[in-house]
Design a protein that fits this description.
258 residues; alpha/beta; TIM Barrel; 8-stranded parallel beta barrel; binds zinc ion
């Protein structure tokens, strides 16, 4: 199983080396900005590296919302980041499932997801897998609780969407980790990537605060079991830089080898 970390974007290959990571995930722009990615000077090196690359889309993206001023730019930004990610040879672009605002029907959010894939198809299609990630909070989320995830997949599954399972988001979002891989796969048919994170908050708290493995509220053996069952690469999105994340990677590797 290939294990790695979410790292700073300036020199992802150096960050990978510092952690002994097989996989790195990073942002192509400021994650809080509405900015199309710029070409990278290290693109050739990234393409040639034997480290697997995953790109995380900006947090601002919410393709589900009924708010036109967020939804329309979100679609465009998702496509521009997908193109830039594919140009670097990335294996997937991770984007949060999104939500509709209070008082709006989440069914419209699922339809807006479908329109996002239809928009991309008209523009030539997404050039790499779009990995929809489960989220921790909110009552109107498209991919927090798995009853909603199932309705989302009924709508977008035919477009070849992939899935990224975040263990912190699942736990804090109120989905038990025991047996979760089977429950997800019964809905999506696939898990492309695991975000292997501990949670600082209790089960079903709805809060999204990652912690180093074994330091939060999740039994680290459960996280190892999720990766083993999924048979998917895993990325830690945990604090502590090379030292903290390196220890998390070691914990996962030791757990998987045991
Ligand atoms: Zn995540």
């Amino acid at each position: 199983m290939r294990i790695g970390a979410h790292v700073e974007p300036a020199d992802p290959l150096a960050e990978a080396a510092a952690r002994g990571a097989d996989v790195v995930q990073f942002f192509l722009t400021d994650p809080q900005a509405w900015t199309d990615p710029e070409p990278r000077a290290d693109a050739d090196a990234l393409r040639a590296a034997d480290v697997d690359l995953y790109i995380h889309a900006p947090y601002r993206i919410n393709v589900a919302t009924l708010n036109n001023r967020i939804r329309i730019p979100s679609r465009k930004l998702l496509l521009s980041h997908a193109r830039a990610a594919a140009d670097l040879g990335a294996k997937g672009l991770i984007v949060h499932g999104g939500h509709v605002d209070k008082g709006h029907d989440v069914a419209t959010g699922f339809e807006n997801w479908k329109k996002t894939f239809e928009y991309a198809a008209k523009e030539g299609g997404f050039p790499l897998p779009i990995l929809v990630e489960n989220t921790a909070g909110g009552d109107n989320a498209c991919a927090r609780r798995f009853d909603a995830l199932a309705r989302l997949w009924d709508t977008i599954g035919e477009y070849g969407a992939g899935f990224c399972l975040d263990t912190c988001h699942a736990f804090a979002g109120g989905e038990e980790l025991l047996g979760i891989v089977d429950r997800v796969k019964a809905i999506t048919g696939r898990i492309d990537l695991i975000h292997a994170n501990d949670s600082r908050d209790p089960f079903d708290s709805g809060r999204d605060r990652h912690d180093n493995l074994g330091r939060g509220t999740i039994d680290p053996e459960l996280i190892v079991a999720v990766i083993r069952a999924a048979g998917a690469p895993a990325v830690v999105e945990t604090p502590g830089g090379a030292e903290g994340q390196g220890a998390d990677i070691t914990l996962l590797r030791d757990g998987l080898a045991a």
